[in-house]
Amino acid sequence: MKYTILDYLEETAAKYPDKTAFADVNASVTWSDFVKHSKEKSAIISKYFEPGKAVPVMIEKSVTTLEYFFGALYAGCFYSYFDSTFPDPRLNSMIETLEVKNIIADKRFEKKLSGLNIKPLFYNELEAAPAADYDNKRRLAIIDTDPVYANFTSGSTGTPKAVVVSHRSVIDFISCFTEIFGIKAEDNIANQAPFDFDVSVKDIFSGVFTGASVHLVPKMYFSFNTMLLDYLEARNITVLIWAVSALCLVSSMDGFDYKIPSKLRMIMFSGEVMPIKQLKIWKKFVPDAEYINLYGPTEITCNCSYFRIPKDADLSSYSKGIPMGLPFPNERILLLDENDNLITECNKEGEVCVSGTCVALGYYNSEKTAEVFVQNPLNKNTFERIYKTGDLATLGDDGNYYYVGRKDTQIKHMGHRIELGEIENTISKHDNITRACCIFEDNKITAFYIGKETDKKEIVTLLKTTLPAYMVPSDFIFIKEFPLTKNGKIDKRALREVAND
Question: Contact 232/190 with Cβ under 8 angstroms?
């Protein structure tokens, strides 16, 4: 019986001891050595961290980083990745939330760490310990409701919240995920996401559960299509589980004119709505791959629904966007109205609420947990916790769920309720425009777009063919590329600064 992530890791290591587990541009490790190294690091971690506590790690994305993550698990702790580029106030807020005194770090971040309220343990200087020294009692004491990781997500308050996810939730989701999409030991997965972004969870643990090799793509490569596409081809990459913006960087910058990866069989995307125009480019150049739209916030262990795009699909027919699809096994999606009534009729908006083993343990050390991790209002008889996502969706006539937008991005303008995504989708239909993003500030809608600079009158004429006048933006700003957050999403705060200049 397998109760923890470590049971799955050791089973994989027994099956594929000499197969590559993880690889970065400088190093790689086999599954058997990965277990050995993780136990060695566990012996070190156990000296500084009590069981059940968070182990912050500030090391650039690498094989070593992952060995410390799993070293934390072997020590009966959980890991949390700290990005060295974060400003000091944010990092100190994270330290305060997790109530930690020590951090595993790279020596080259010594200056950065000197300004934080934490003691650095530089892994380069820590005394090595043999794997035999790791405390098996700690490992045996782990139960499946113990946490695996804490990923910080920003909130409307500006204070980062730490989403804590258990062994049980990861096991439940990844077991279904790898089975549904047929991920096997023969696959090579290209990891794009930062380690504090939950998309990386699918990369890391899909490898752990199946024996697939996980290749860590350097962030810099996403600024140079030639380097990125050479990497995918050289590593025989078969599976991409990427943020939408990462895929769009390739297609919108004509990357396929340079090289088309020949081994890709499955391309999954999430985090934002995939622009139809960009998906068409991917399908044109990589037609034999299967394309999957994934939906779900960090708080429900990565994803709660998926949609397989038929190979012969007419993408232009997805006028409401690519469907969110259907729930993963053992996950339940509820659409609730403002009075917590269940919406059952088609095409009526409701808030996406999710229940099941996938629901996270909550926010670490935060009162916000009680606001969004709540009792299912439809269940008056037994305890059933749900997570209120804040996303709006509808149930389509075809049985699929369709994403509408965020409750907090639906704007009220000139007396009308408007979803900015509808405007963005319409702007993107112009032949010169590859992607658009709208912001609402000072009672004014401003549209940003990339592609070719286009006369405002042309865009307005296009919009007025399908949108009412009150939905037409006041300004249209051409930019060469969208500013992105570290998680690969469009940085709307940066766009607001541009609009205010």
Answer: yes
